[in-house]
Amino acid sequence: MVRYLLRRLNLFLATSLVLFIVLFIVTNQFPVEQRFALTGIQSPNAQQIAQIETDFNLNSGVFNQFIAYLQQRLSGNLGISATSQRPVADELASVLPATFELAAVSGTLALMFGLPLGILASLSRHKVTQHTIMAITLTGYSIPVFWLGLTLSLWFGVELGWLPISGRLNLLYEIEPVTGFMLVDTLLSTSPYSTSAFFDAVLHIILPAITLAVLPFTVVVRITRSAMMTIMDQTYIKAAEARGLHTSRIVLRHALPNAVIPVIKSLGLMLGSFASYAMVVEVIFAWPGIGSWLVAGIYQRDYTVIQGGVLAVALIIIFLSIMIEVLHTSINPLSRKELYASN
């Protein structure tokens, strides 16, 4: 297992290196002056120009420039935003918690409703129930996320007025940020209206979370159904049924833990699609996360923000993909068997 973890670490480092190379090449192709593309300083004075040339080795060859670029980015120097004149690293730190919160709630909803429906679709003897569930998942998988988000906003936000359609919290509430997660910060707040602020934060996250959860929800239902149908035909399940164990116990104790394994693997494979969907959802609902921040930077031609956003999103996807693969290998006996056999 140690050798496997080392190989995954090497894969992360190699993939990250390729990412930095691509970003370095793209940065040099931006239709602006190189010093501005690297730092975001629009009109640097002579001292700043000398500092930039020293930091990024601009008077040396391409290889030395890349090494300097890598050192600066790894040290946290992502430049400053040309729009806000704030360090890009600080802006990243302020928008990442909102994205993580939305992704966590959406993933929880997808698993909370997807697993039971997948189990129901695999165990139900009624064709109508099976076909209805699969039709729902197929429809959810086919609906464009931007259309779904706009439709939910129109129905529940504009026409019915039940739910807010933008932001994370009503501007009337002033909650001091602690963790960056609004649902947590409202509970930690000592403000007299912290409870009201918490429920308001819950209302704000409902529509974007449901919109973003549709894609993983459909995948979870389909993979769970397929895995459960295969597992329920296995010999050890038949033996448990012959011993008189209740169906619910067989499903929860024996079948479901094995059915979750392919679900985890499938979720790892769709992280890229999930991230792109999250960007669209954040723009639709004006959710102040990294997606809407990055899209705003693209519109404003804020090149340091574009670099910082792409770098952060790509590194998070790479890291989470490898962690999910490690988790899948650690809980899957067959993967561990293949792993040890390869050693």
From TrEMBL:
<feature type="transmembrane region" description="Helical">
    <location>
        <begin position="9"/>
        <end position="26"/>
    </location>
</feature>
<feature type="transmembrane region" description="Helical">
    <location>
        <begin position="102"/>
        <end position="123"/>
    </location>
</feature>
<feature type="domain" description="ABC transmembrane type-1">
    <location>
        <begin position="96"/>
        <end position="328"/>
    </location>
</feature>
<keyword id="KW-1133">Transmembrane helix</keyword>
<feature type="transmembrane region" description="Helical">
    <location>
        <begin position="201"/>
        <end position="223"/>
    </location>
</feature>
<dbReference type="GO" id="GO:0005886">
    <property type="term" value="C:plasma membrane"/>
</dbReference>
<feature type="transmembrane region" description="Helical">
    <location>
        <begin position="274"/>
        <end position="299"/>
    </location>
</feature>
<dbReference type="Pfam" id="PF00528">
    <property type="entry name" value="BPD_transp_1"/>
</dbReference>
<dbReference type="InterPro" id="IPR000515">
    <property type="entry name" value="MetI-like"/>
</dbReference>
<dbReference type="GO" id="GO:0071916">
    <property type="term" value="F:dipeptide transmembrane transporter activity"/>
</dbReference>
<protein>
    <submittedName>
        <fullName>ABC transporter permease subunit</fullName>
    </submittedName>
</protein>
<comment type="similarity">
    <text>Belongs to the binding-protein-dependent transport system permease family. OppBC subfamily.</text>
</comment>
<keyword id="KW-0813">Transport</keyword>
<keyword id="KW-0812">Transmembrane</keyword>
<dbReference type="InterPro" id="IPR035906">
    <property type="entry name" value="MetI-like_sf"/>
</dbReference>
<keyword id="KW-1003">Cell membrane</keyword>
<feature type="transmembrane region" description="Helical">
    <location>
        <begin position="305"/>
        <end position="327"/>
    </location>
</feature>
<feature type="transmembrane region" description="Helical">
    <location>
        <begin position="135"/>
        <end position="158"/>
    </location>
</feature>
<keyword id="KW-0472">Membrane</keyword>
